[in-house]
Amino acid sequence: MADRKTAPTPATTGTHALFTIWARKHGIEFPKLIPAYLPPAGLGIISTEEITGPDGAHGQTKTISPTGEEVIAFTPNALLLTRENLERFSPGCRLGPLLRRKKDDGGLSSHAVFAAAIAREMRRIAEGHENMWREWIDVWPRAKEFRGCMPLMWSVEESDLLPPSTKRLLDEQREKFKRDFKMVEQKGFEFTKQEYMWAWIIVNTRTLFYKPAHPTYNELPREDCMALCPFIDYFNHSDDGCKVQLTPTGFTVTPTKPNYPPNTQLFVTYGCHSNDFLLVEYGFNLPLEKNKWDEVSITSNLLPLLSEEHKRVLYREGFLGKYAFDKEAFCFRTQAAVRLMLIEHPELDANWRKLEVWKNFLAGHDDGERERYAVEERLLGFLDGLEGEGRRALFEVGKLQRQSVKGVIEMRWTQILGMVNDVRTKMVGENGEGRGRGYVR
Ligand SMILES: C[S@@+](CC[C@H](N)C(=O)[O-])C[C@H]1O[C@@H](n2cnc3c(N)ncnc32)[C@H](O)[C@@H]1O
């Protein structure tokens, strides 16, 4: 789902109208907001009247947080889907004990269990059972809405055309899904892969980080601290969206900027995410100028080029892994790794002086100018390789059947090729003049 500018249409009928009535009845507060259709993002949140935000004068109707900020949305704890509320959400599911067991003792991740509870409730609802959260479940996207945009649902032929930085994240996600599905099957749940994948994507795209001041959360790994949150899960993402906070009574949303006129979409920030991450985890990416965190990871390209000796030295100095570039430059960690690669055996006594120079560069005592040309040579070679791969992928994408998938792959490759071009121009100049000689590709 790309972020095109589209006029919002208030979602005030059908399931969304029923949901907003249900939400207010159960204590969810959103005095100046309504859900709206915002294609291609699906649903989102718009203002119905002016929101003055952090710097404005506080009007009569505002809920004010203890820190004096305007709270524009509030969802109480009792309505969250959390580890604590699991058995209420899916009565008789017996999933709670699986959560309480350690993972190496047959326990499951929060993600796996929430997805199982949701898949189970979908079946029970279809069989005629009631569910306290039914109105909320009814406004979630259905599987067909995920098929075009969530790479997890794509064929291998389609996903193989994604850029390597996107593909690496997708491969990790596929492994995680496979593991969770297998575990849930082993526990005796008989969901089809499609049923479970839909529920798993619902959890993936709609959870908030949730770590209440409760002893059971102290020892939980970060990735297990999660909650699904009615109403606040309607908000779409931007890199400068409103702030979501967990208070002792529930989640709140407060604007970070002043003055939103009526009929304006309000966003929250899901995290400092690159477009590769947004694409794999949430099924959309932002235009480059709207994502200040976009970058292209090259870790999987660079690691295989490092010898064990290089890796040991980089590890000792805290520079092993997390290599990337953005439209401005390669990150400093990449510089550190590529500079070290110029020393074939950095641990040899005979190379101690070269290693000192490298360490001085890391510490900022040496400008690294002597090695600049050799380093750029490698980085430019790397950019050329990625560019070639991108051109081949864009040619192959033309042969795919599904327009939605084509559009997503083309958009990400075009962004990456644009960044390759920008960073190369910054290094060598428009015509290679920055290198003292023409840079010929
Ligand atoms: C928490 S939900 C937000 C509500 C969702 N749009 C809906 O229709 O229910 C997250 C999903 O919204 C969509 N989304 C969020 N932010 C977006 C954005 N800036 N542009 C396009 N789609 C976005 C993605 O599909 C993402 O997986």
UniProtKB/TrEMBL annotation:
Record SUPFAM superfamilies: SET domain (SSF82199)
Classification via Gene3D superfamilies: set domain protein methyltransferase, domain 1
Source organism, top-level taxon: Eukaryota
Domain SET: start-end pairs: 31-271
MF term (GO), any: protein-lysine N-methyltransferase activity
InterPro entries membership: SET_dom, SET_dom_sf, SETD3_SETD6_MTase, SETD4_SET
PANTHER family: SET DOMAIN-CONTAINING PROTEIN, UNCHARACTERIZED PUTATIVE METHYLTRANSFERASE
UniProt protein name: SET domain-containing protein
